[in-house]
Design brief:
The structure is a single chain. The chain is α+β, with helices and mostly antiparallel strands and 464 residues long. Helix content is 50%, strand content 14%. The chain has eleven helices and nine strands. The chain has a five-stranded antiparallel beta sheet, covered by helices on one side. Strand 5 and strand 6 (120-131) form a beta hairpin. The longest helix has 46 residues, at 403-448.
Length: 464
Amino acid sequence: ALLCMPNPKRNSRALQSTTMSSYFPRSLYESYPECFLTLLVPGHDTVTGFAPIQNNPGGGTPYGFFPYGSENHFYIWVDINLSANRSQQLLQYLQDGLYLDANTKALTVQIITYNAELHYFCNTQLDFSFATENGGVIRIVSKIQTVNFEMYDTTMSQFRGALEVIYVVCVFVAAYIELKDLVMTKLETGSFKSYFGSYWNYFDLTSIALNLTVVFSWMITYFQYVRTKGSREPLLTSQTHLRHRLGWANQMTSFTMKPQYHVYTSLTNEARWLKLNENENGKSEEFDRVLDTFNEMNFLTDFQVTYMMLNGLNSFFFIIRLLKVCDFQPRMGILTRTIAMAASDLYHFFLLLLLIFMGYSITGHLVFGTTLKQFSRLLDSGYTLFNLMVFGDNSMAQDLFLLIESHGTAMGIVALSFYASYAMLVVLILLNFLLAIIVDAFTCIKESIKETTSLHEEIYQYTQ
């Protein structure tokens, strides 16, 4: 596991010139003055504290308590081979050394694990934010992402690869057809105006652009990806390691994950636990390799998230294009034709709904924001009212009615009026208006296509 603490801004509460929040006893400074550097906070004439200097006479540097690398972060490497007792001692060591104390602002914990059965890496990251100025709030953001580097090595994955080849061919064919349509429009009419006059073409171009982006990104990734050949030995041995190459566009990333990294000189030292395993030049190549590995894993998992997000957008645009294709048959295109006929009324309806909804969201936040959690922020207020409107979530009604007991009759009347007017105006009236607009357009379209043949009748006629 890798612990990382960003270098916070300098302030009078915690001295951050060369170490984290460090208030060292004056007696310690008086006993070993050569190992300390006097620190002054800008704007103050008196000494406010002392911090250990990096080049201490004993040699070596406890890097966990000093910024490491160009990012100016404080790193601690927790070796997987530490015993449970030693891990507890290390945690106490960090607390005694003021790495973790009341002035700690943020801490990131990152762990990379490997599932040998499924051949998946898992990147787990926890970001702790200690907002002491806001009443001691601790915010925890977790991110768990998996990534598979062994593609197309099973029968099912090879079948998926065959389907992907078909998909790639279809994408290039669709791009060719759309480009041909665009060129033909230019040759026939002398401009592209008629082509871009149809809103369906915007969906087509966006969908094709996303598809090409996904295809090329995956092809670049795969062809720059090299899997380790040879025997498949267990991961956690001293001889084996996994080496893969994965790149995106102009960024080449070489990913190497070893079973163990010898970052520190020893895991059993009685003192100087964080003494790095340095070479003759004073550099810790092993620790640099650890940081590169974790940074590369973050890049690979973030790339996969972006790739999957683009595929999700592709699926959405595929649905839109499917509706366009279905429009060729009057009965299959009843949905798109209904929406097209009601488009003007729907536009004005949603504009009116947005104005009323925003008004109630602001009102709920201003009136109940200091008393109810559901309205504490403007975003929370809108989320609460949206759930009531769309999903019928009535959980906030009880809290509103309890205001009669806690805040008196006047607040209770305000809460009741707010809830009743919103439920009546938005939930009952406006949503029924929406249904009326759609039903009215559907009725007109239904009347216009009643003389047309159905899809199965057309198929029967073509087969005769």
